[in-house]
Write a structure and sequence with these properties.
InterPro entries: DUF1501, TAT_signal
Keywords: Signal
Shape: globular
Oligomer: single chain
Number of helices: 12
CATH architecture: 3-Layer(aba) Sandwich
Organism: Jannaschia donghaensis
CATH class: Alpha Beta
Radius of gyration: 19 Å
Protein name: DUF1501 domain-containing protein
Length: about 375
């Protein structure tokens, strides 16, 4: 790892511990409603401007001169302004059917440190402001359950060893984990990838070894589809809410290669969920969230760094999709937050709250005080089909 000093290594360790968790938590809860909700947390700060590329903004090409951007680079045009990352291309039929949509320029209220740990805690706790001591708190999905008449505990399945904060709390839940044949610390996994990145002889072997532990793009391949298939199996029974997290989205280096793999596998997982749910898909909404976005401009290692405004991915037959929600703030330097990040134009919790209202009938007052304390839900974005 030539060129890395001690501070670089410590920074990488800090990032990888949050962005490449060895565990992939998944949890379920049963509700009397016939609608289903699947919340997917992408750990590591997924670059929303790569998932949904705003190629119509004239400043994008200047900020990311070495990145593939619009339709001319293999992305699929969606709106004449936005293009879909090639790895998400298999989801195009969902977009055309109204079962896929995106929310641009969203963020939690977190601003101060751009820390994976604090950002993920605030995202899953659903609280407002920068409140670092969140560990031990309950999560917003757990606070939702008592608000739904007749809701009862059902098996809550956490893939890995740790419980997700988003479902932590007094409402009953449990966990489930697939077998893993190799136990490798996440920090070690990340450092190993960086070490062998430019070594064509050992890179693939390193990725194969890490794949056995679930440490490389935990949505990858059959392992990722296993998680979505298991979720579908539970939702076909009496579970109504599923939450899972997928690691490996921290793209400081060689983002194009890393996110191609991640988005391809995420697409396969979502399509597996649709296929396995069958007619239940029409009653399902999938909310894909991440702790924050990434810098508007590329860095010196063909990646992006921790930012603020990001993108939310929505899917499911219960969605009125085929559209992009949210106001676009622009990418001129004076329009960026701190002259580096996409400026958020709405709280990501507002869209989650409107999804809960539409799916389960939860009242506005409870959503803005109990589930998401201090939230201004704002106008109805019209998510429901």
């Amino acid at each position: 790892m030539a060129g890395l000093n001690r501070r670089d290594v410590l920074t990488m360790l800090g990032c990888s511990a949050a962005a490449w968790p060895l565990t992939t938590p998944m949890a379920f809860a049963a509700l009397p409603s016939d609608n289903r909700l699947v919340v997917v947390v992408l750990r590591g700060a997924m670059d929303g401007m790569d998932a949904l590329r705003p190629y119509g903004d004239p400043h994008l090409a200047t900020l990311r001169p070495d990145f593939a951007l619009g339709p001319q680079s293999g992305a699929t045009d969606l709106t004449g302004f936005h293009a879909l990352h090639p790895g998400l291309g298999p989801l195009l039929p969902l977009w055309r059917a109204g079962d896929l949509g995106f929310v641009q320029a969203v963020s939690t209220p977190y601003r101060s440190g751009r820390s994976h740990f604090d950002g993920q805690d605030i995202l899953e706790a659903g609280t407002a402001g920068d409140v670092p001591p969140l560990r031990g708190r309950d999560g917003w999905l757990n606070r939702l359950l008592p608000l739904i008449p007749g809701a009862h505990g059902r098996t809550a399945f956490a893939v890995g060893r740790d419980e997700m904060l988003i479902l932590r709390g007094p409402a009953n839940h449990a966990s489930w984990a697939p077998d893993a044949r190799l136990d490798l610390a996440p920090a070690t996994a990340d450092l190993l990838l960086h070490s062998y990145h430019d070594d064509t002889l050992f890179r693939e072997s390193a990725e194969t070894a890490l794949g056995l532990s679930g440490s490389v793009a935990q949505v990858a391949g059959k392992r990722g589809q296993e998680l979505f298939a298991f979720a579908a199996g539970q939702l076909m029974q009496d579970a109504r809410i599923a939450a899972l997290s997928l690691g490996g989205w921290d793209s400081h280096r060689q983002q194009e290669r890393q996110l191609q793999r991640g988005f391809t596998a995420l697409s396969a997982g979502l399509l597996r969920l649709r296929d396995d749910l069958g007619p239940v898909w029409d009653k399902t909404m999938v909310v894909v969230m991440t702790e924050f976005g990434r810098t508007a401009f590329q860095n010196g290692t063909q990646g992006t760094d921790h930012g603020t405004g990001g993108t939310m991915i929505l899917a499911g037959g219960a969605l009125r999709g085929g559209k992009v929600w949210g106001d676009w703030p622009g990418l001129a330097e004076v329009q960026l937050l701190d002259r580096r990040d996409l400026m958020p134009t709405r709280d990501v919790r507002a869209y989650a709250a409107w999804a809960l209202h539409g799916l389960f009938g939860t009242g506005h007052a409870a959503l803005s005080s109990v589930v998401f304390p201090g939230l201004d839900m704002g106008p109805d974005p019209g998510l429901m089909a």
